[in-house]
Predict the 3D structure of the following.
Amino acid sequence: MPENTTTGPSTAFLFPGQGGFDGAALRRAKQTYPQVQRVFERLDSATDALFSRRISDVLFGPEQTDLRGLLAGDSWMSQVAIYGAGLAAHEILTDQGVRPDVLAGHSLGEITALVAAGAFSAEDGVRIVAQRVAAIERHDGIDGRMVALSAGADRVRLLLGLLDDPLLAVATENHDEQTVVSGPDGVLDQVTAIAAQLKIGALEIDAPFPFHTPALAPAAPEFEAYVRTLDQRRLQRPVYSPILQRHYEPGEPLAGRLADHFVQPVRFAAAVRALHGDGVSTFVEAGGRAALSKLVTRLTQGSDVRSLPTLALDDGDRLALDATLRELRAAGLADPDGTTGPGLAELLAPTVASDLFEAYWKAHGHEVRERVRRDAEAFAKEEREQGGEQEPAPAPSPAPAHAALDRDQVLGELRTLYAQALEYPEEVFEGGAQLEAELGVDSVKQVELLSRVSQRYELPPREADFRLAPYNTLDAIADFVIAELERHPEPATAG
């Protein structure tokens, strides 16, 4: 676990899962906090490539969008919306100077927590969420649902034992009087009927699938294999898993752990108590609605714990995030007045009115911080070199083999690349064969393969308006490669 250097009561960010989306609150936040648009622009690039649709157009279009409306559409929409709202809340909070000592997520929110901690890029987070949906849909894991019962986990397990269905399971343990069960529709009808006889309340969860049940076991290996293809980075902040009941290790391979989530339960109540026992006294729900913050309040009743929502509207139709930031500033857990410390305006721009500086900092403070970080790293490197601590020179890159390529050669190389990656015979990859309609290669896998093609030919980054749909055959991809090589004869370099 990354070292925690805090000397006082610590702060945890909690990222919600199923049900954790409030469309009205997110729209309200977008009007005030530029981080919302900034985050969703990054997610748009991924959803546009995967589904030929920008998630921002779904969430911020002319029609108001709520969770029920998202669930009535394509399955990926609600999941990416929940994920994106959590990331946006995290960006707002950290740009306002809030520094969490630990991150934790509830179900889907664990993916958000890992991305926020730096394990994956925001765009790869979308791909993970999308593949999670696609794998479940391909393995018929959709004929079921999730129901919250007003009873503790032990009592619910006794109830489930009466039915003895191997696909029925406790999915989440939220608190001592709320347990969520997951399983096939028919047997859940029996669960709710028995619960009614026992005077146990039952409420259906807004979720597209029955998560955390043995029914999803067949989808886990495929999902794990996909996540292994993504670039995993070292965690920059500690992440505690309510599923694993421990912190992730800094270099721990995450593909298998995320695949385990398909079938393992979320023990949220135990996680909150463990974090509280470790000294966490402020829990901030980074995401939509206020379900997790209410659970924390109930789980820590009688203590001095502070539990705060963000992307939710209060009883007065006000954005909870505004009040949360005021409380965090008052507690010394956020920058005063939304800056990075007292006197910053006087230090950086003494002749500029404070309200103008605040507006500028809210919109561009993140850019200033990033520029300072890069300059500091460059300065440190220069100091090391001048002091004789020369960094080893990078190994020379092999010269690109672009010059003599023709279309037939490219097509043959693509055929081999795709056949090896998909474990198909090369002969099935005729130039005009439709990758998805004829060969069953879904859009998520196509994005991954196109990334491999870009690496193979050292192509420059794709443009922001790039769309996957036209490149659905090897013929089209070969033409794309040739055109890119003609436009950019030298290999792309990072700058």
Remarks:
- The radius of gyration is 25 Å.
